[in-house]
Structure formats: structure tokens, C-alpha cells
């Protein structure tokens, strides 16, 4: 038996993106964003209402997206419930440290091993931020021998909008562009 749940934001798995920005004085901020994803091979979209983060992006036109992981759940949630407008030392209080990204004017969060450096392309309908990925910066600890991101060495978390939980991604179950061939 199946059940209709109504119009809900249940596009599983929902991302945990930590958006890193600098303000006009180069002071770092970070916020949690679940609403977004890939728009094209080199484009991402993030849906954000007005926050300290969006004020910063209005100034710099650049930001980073670090992927929330299982080692940093509390910090990732903290930056999603406290605003940099109320807590200027939010990044530090989260227990995060930052380094300036090489290709954009935005901070890389050192504790989160995978980071996309993004440049704003346009804002659609006042809240959908479309951006180009200009670089991906990764901690070598999460790369395999070929230099690929290895999900055996890194545990991204996902957000469950139904019960407001964070879950971890675990375990390879198949091979894309290959397993389907078994049914040809
Ligand atoms: C799990 C989670 C997901 C969130 N996703 C979004 C989102 O996609 N867009 C958004 O505008 N706010 C989202 N928020 C809320 C912001 O992260 C929150 O308002 C934050 O305090 C803004 O920080 P800032 O004012 O320092 O930029 C989310 C919060 C949580 C906890």
C-alpha cells in the first residue's frame, strides 16, 4: 500500500552544504544550506533567503560550499541555527578554522575536507543563487590513489527534511553506467 504525503520537500538525499563567505572586512562566516544542488557540470544552485551570508555574497559575489560530514555534525548544525548577524565569531564558536580559498574571495573551512569554490553567476527570483564552480579543493586524506574523491575515506551527511535528522552516507552499492548493463 502506498500513501500520498502531499507537496513536501522530499528530494532525498538532501545536501548539507556549508556556505563560506567573507564580509567587506574579510571576516569569515558560514551557514548551513540544504536547498540546492548541481545545475550543470560546472554550475551549482543554492536557494537562500536573506542572511548574513547573502549580504556577504552581495558584496564579494563569491562563496565556498563545503560538504558537511559526520565528524562535524554539531558544528554544521550550529552554523544553521545561529546567524553571523547575532554572533560575529560564529565560525570560531562552531570550532571551525578557515583558510582563504585560492581562486575565490571566500573561506575554506579547514575541518571539512571537500570544498567547492564558487563564483556567483546570477540570482533568480531573489533567492536562487546560481554559481560557477571554479575549483574544488580537497584534503588529500579523502583522495584515492587516482586522486578521486573516495567515499570510503570521507563521510558526507545528508539532511532528512521529514524528521529533521542528519544521516551519513555509507557504503558503495553499485557501479554507475555499468550495473544497468546486466539487464540489456
Ligand atoms: C539543516 C538546515 C538547512 C538549512 N537550509 C537552508 C537553506 O537551504 N536556505 C536558507 O536560506 N537557510 C537555510 N538554513 C537556515 C540558515 O542556515 C540559518 O538561517 C543561518 O543562521 C544563517 O546564517 P547567517 O545569517 O550567518 O548567514 C538551514 C538551516 C539548517 C539547520
List the helices and strands and how they pair.
Layout lengths: L16 E6 L5 E6 L2 E5 L2 E5 L4 H9 L1 E6 L5 H9 L8 H4 L4 E3 L6 E3 L4 E11 L3 E11 L18 E4 L4 E4 L16
Antiparallel strand pairs: 1-2, 1-5, 3-4, 4-9, 5-8, 6-7, 8-9, 10-11
This protein binds flavin mononucleotide (FMN).
Flavin mononucleotide binds next to β2, α1 and α2.
Task: Please characterize this protein's 3D structure.
This protein has three helices and eleven strands. It has 184 residues and is mostly beta strands. A hairpin with a 4-residue loop joins strand 10 (157-160) and strand 11 (165-168). It starts with 16 loop residues before the first strand and ends in a 16-residue tail after the last strand. The mean pLDDT is 97. The strands form three sheets. It has a seven-stranded antiparallel β-sheet with strand order 2-1-5-8-9-4-3. The radius of gyration is 17 Å and the shape is globular. The protein has a single domain (17-183), classed as Pnp Oxidase, Chain A (Roll). The structure holds flavin mononucleotide. The site of flavin mononucleotide has 21 residues, from strand 2, helix 1 and helix 2.
